[in-house]
Amino acid sequence: MAATLPLIPDGLALDALADVLRGRDWATLALDPADARLQAAAAEARAHASAGRLLPAATGRADGRQFAGLRGDATLWLDDPACGPAARDLLAALEALRIEVNRRLLLGLEEVEAHFAHYPPGAGYARHRDRFRSDDARVLSLVVYLNADWPDGAGGELRLHLPDGPVDIAPRLGTVALFLSAEVEHEVLPATHPRYSVAAWFRQRPRR
User: Fold this and answer.
1) Do 93 and 5 meet the contact criterion of CB atoms below 8 Å apart?
2) 65 with 59: CB under 8 angstroms?
3) How far apart are CA 156 and CA 121, in angstroms?
4) Residue whose C-alpha is closest to residue 111's, from 208, 201, 1
5) CA dist., res. 118 & res. 176, Å (int)
6) What is the pTM of this model?
7) Is the Cβ–Cβ distance between 36 and 5 less than 8 Å?
8) Span 32-58, pLDDT tens digits
9) How far apart are CA 28 and CA 134, in angstroms?
């Protein structure tokens, strides 16, 4: 296993993660915020935002794409030529994680897509699911947060809307959230600070 990359727990932790996902459709991981690769990803995300390389994100696909109303983030895909070694390391780690999760859960995961995301103060993302009505490829969603020293009360949580009530996940450096794309409605709450993350989706071969 690629233990030198971030995002890859050891075998026992992966087994536990798979058990949690089987039982409730969502899970969290806690990475070491001092990990140099994680810090490099955070620095790269901030650098791209400062240079204007992150572009306003849209919702939907093809003729249904919208650039206002539901979400206020700007994004840059990790496989974009503008991205550097930290993004490539993250993609490699996510690919390794895809293989390990698929081996345990047999979800038919064939590929991963991921982007940096930046939410300026006051921006959020309205309640939604990650699977498009016209495209069922996304199976498992993942968010890894890149915000060091995130203060209490700053907002910016990922809110999962679950049968037993909402769960809020603070966007602190090293926190990872995973959930089934078609099952878990969620939203991003506005924050008083700039907020950085990597959003990723593990995909199957589309069936429609």
Assistant:
1) yes
2) yes
3) 9
4) 201
5) 16
6) 0.90
7) no
8) 999 998 999 999 999 999 999 999 987
9) 28
